[in-house]
């Protein structure tokens, strides 16, 4: 599994702590230093089962500068939103865990992190 984090984020640090406590094998991606491109964002949205506007941090300065709260949230605007996320990775909700079963979760709570852990083939929550 991979976890997209901002090390300055307390939710990210909490998720990493829980993953470590559970002995999970994972890779860390510091998405502000190694930003996902539009294709990677599309792929993670598919895995999440969400739309780009569902994973935007609307209170960030960049969101306010772009006027994201006023952008239409409809299929025809999807690529515009994805482009904004690719150009401004700070707008991404965090942390995002991509699980080994092909799904992903926005892991902002202990329950969401545990959900991702349960999606690992052969784990206690998901027998192989």
From TrEMBL:
Keywords: Oxidoreductase. It holds the Pfam family ArsC. PROSITE patterns: ARSC. GO terms for molecular function: arsenate reductase (glutaredoxin) activity. Belongs to the ArsC family. This is Arsenate reductase. It comes from Actinacidiphila glaucinigra.
């Amino acid at each position: 599994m991979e976890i997209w984090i901002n090390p300055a984020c307390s939710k990210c640090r909490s998720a990493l702590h829980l993953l470590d406590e559970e002995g999970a094998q994972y890779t860390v991606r510091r998405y502000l230093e190694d930003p996902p491109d539009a294709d990677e964002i599309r792929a993670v949205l598919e895995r999440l089962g969400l739309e780009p506007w569902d994973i935007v941090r609307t209170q960030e300065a960049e969101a306010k500068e772009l006027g994201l709260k006023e952008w239409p949230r409809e299929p025809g605007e999807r690529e515009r939103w994805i482009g904004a996320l690719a150009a401004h990775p700070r707008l991404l909700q965090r942390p995002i865990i991509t699980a080994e079963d092909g799904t992903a979760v926005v892991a902002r709570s202990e329950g969401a992190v545990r959900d991702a852990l349960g999606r690992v083939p052969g784990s206690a929550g998901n027998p192989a």
